[in-house]
Specification:
CATH architecture of the largest domain in chain B: Sandwich
Oligomer: heterodimer
Shape of chain B: elongated
Shape of chain A: globular
Number of strands of chain A: 13
CATH architecture of chain A: 4-Layer Sandwich
Number of helices of chain A: 8
Structural class of chain B: alpha/beta
CATH superfamily of the largest domain in chain B: Cupredoxins -  blue copper proteins
Strand order of the largest sheet of chain B: 2-1-4-6
Structural class of chain A: alpha/beta
Distance between the termini of chain B: 58 Å
Number of helices of chain B: 1
């Protein structure tokens, strides 16, 4: 992953300056749970093995949700012979969070082969979550062979076009984007002109102070194009988001946590609940990474996200399954 | 020529004929098999191998997925040929009848591209 120290130093919403050491400490994800909170322009970091030790502000106007991703229901190879068990463990983690999230975002690859029984199994496991409201965006594994027909019917009936939509929660504007349809030979993820047109119109009436959360499967920034880890036309989308004071982009697809800050946009990818993948360039290809059984759950996880009114950035806590 | 000699000559002749027929048949069968069975392309580690093959018109190409992740085999125009999702050990075949260059890719992992040249 390319690091841009210059971009990180320029991150200065409150014009209060920034504690650089604290900020760089936050950037060391590498499988450790880290909590980053913006408090009056100063970034504080605490490393966590147990999210209940986090001193999260419990002021009014707080919004709390969780992101899960890449459950790959139906996968059964050595990297994880039981993805249903690890999805259940992820749901357990959510159920035992100190502040139950109000809703979940699933950033795609719910199924492994777009089979009806795989979607069924995932939905069944999610039913045991205390959080009932789940918003899904598809991964490329969810739209194989039927152009996303099943996905749309099951998970995005009220969505537009090929499954995009927006909604508001406590003053935060959420946008679910689809970048796994109509992929071209040799290409990356793709949003397409229809969706971009819709996005521009959707953002038009909003005040620049509205916090925005965008969620989509494939990263909207160029993590590692050689492995397809990027979106061809995300620059156009980011252009529309430029004027907003706080933008958080939540993605999946790469099966590891990664974060990048560029101006007022924080990009974050979640771990998978199924199997890990190698770091960019660290293997021949981006396939499932086999690790000793006792290490597997330490490389899978969920992300707990909080927005506190008055704060610019969302607090994202990545919690491992074991 | 006495009868015994006649018969032994006949038997030899018959044997030679059978051998010739057999050899001819075998050669024809091999040629036919070569034209139709054609090429096997292995999918592994997010790669089609060999990445480029040249075949005669009428050749059937067989793709076998040896990767631990599913892939598809889809022509660039998305209509000429299009496999369903191929899990590990699943196969897909297509017979190329028209000459041309056929670029194809995996629609799930579009960075994976390869081509079949037919001439």
């Amino acid at each position: 992953m390319e690091r841009h120290p210059k971009d990180e130093l320029l991150y200065d919403h409150n014009h209060d300056g920034i504690d650089r050491r604290g900020f760089l400490k936050c950037m060391a994800w590498a499988g450790t749970g880290a909590l980053c909170l913006m408090n009056g322009g100063m970034l504080q970091s605490a490393s966590l093995s147990d999210p209940s030790t986090a001193k999260l502000p419990r002021t009014g106007g707080q919004l709390s949700f969780a992101q899960i991703s890449d459950s790959h229901m139906g996968f059964n190879k050595p990297a994880n012979p039981d993805v249903a068990a690890t999805l259940r463990a992820a749901v357990e983690k959510i159920n035992t969070l100190p502040d139950p999230p109000e809703f979940l975002l699933h950033t795609g690859d719910i199924s492994h082969l777009s089979k009806p029984e795989e979607f069924d199994a995932a939905e069944q496991i999610l039913k045991s979550c205390v959080t009932k409201d789940v918003f899904f965006v598809p991964g490329e594994h969810d739209v194989i062979g039927d152009d996303g027909k099943q996905f749309l019917e099951r998970f995005a009936k009220d969505a537009i076009g090929e499954g995009w939509r927006s909604f508001d929660k406590k003053g935060v504007h959420f946008i679910g984007l689809v970048n796994v349809m109509n992929l071209k030979a040799g290409g990356l993820g793709s949003l397409g002109s229809d969706q971009l047109e819709w996005l521009e119109a959707d953002l038009k009436g909003l005040k620049a102070s509205t916090p925005i959360v965008v969620f989509a499967h494939i990263p909207l920034w160029s993590v590692y194009p050689q492995w397809g880890w990027g979106t061809e036309d995300s620059a156009q989308a980011l252009c529309y988001l430029k004027r907003f004071g706080s933008v958080t982009v939540l993605n999946g697809h790469i099966h590891q946590t990664m974060q990048k800050v560029e101006g007022n946009v924080t990009f974050h990818t979640a771990a998978s609940t199924a199997f890990p993948q190698p770091q960019p360039g660290q293997a021949e290809g981006p396939g499932p990474m086999k690790v000793p059984a006792e290490q597997l759950r330490g490389l899978l996880g969920i992300s707990d996200v909080k927005f506190v009114r008055g704060e610019h950035a969302l607090a994202i806590v990545d919690t491992k399954l074991g | 020529m006495n009868r015994r000699k006649k018969y032994s000559y006949m038997l030899c002749g018959l044997g030679v004929c059978l051998l010739l027929t057999g050899a001819l048949a075998w050669t024809f069968m091999r040629k036919a098999a070569a034209a139709s069975a054609g090429v096997v392309i292995k999918i592994d580690n997010f790669t089609f191998a060999p990445a480029e093959v040249t075949v005669a018109p009428g050749t059937t190409v067989l793709w076998v997925n040896r990767d631990d992740i599913p892939h598809t085999v889809v022509s660039e125009d998305k209509t000429t040929f299009k496999s369903k999702a191929l899990d590990t050990d699943d196969k897909f075949s297509y017979t190329f009848t028209k000459p041309g260059t056929y670029t194809y890719f995996c629609s799930v992992h579009p960075k994976m591209t390869a081509k079949v040249v037919v001439r």
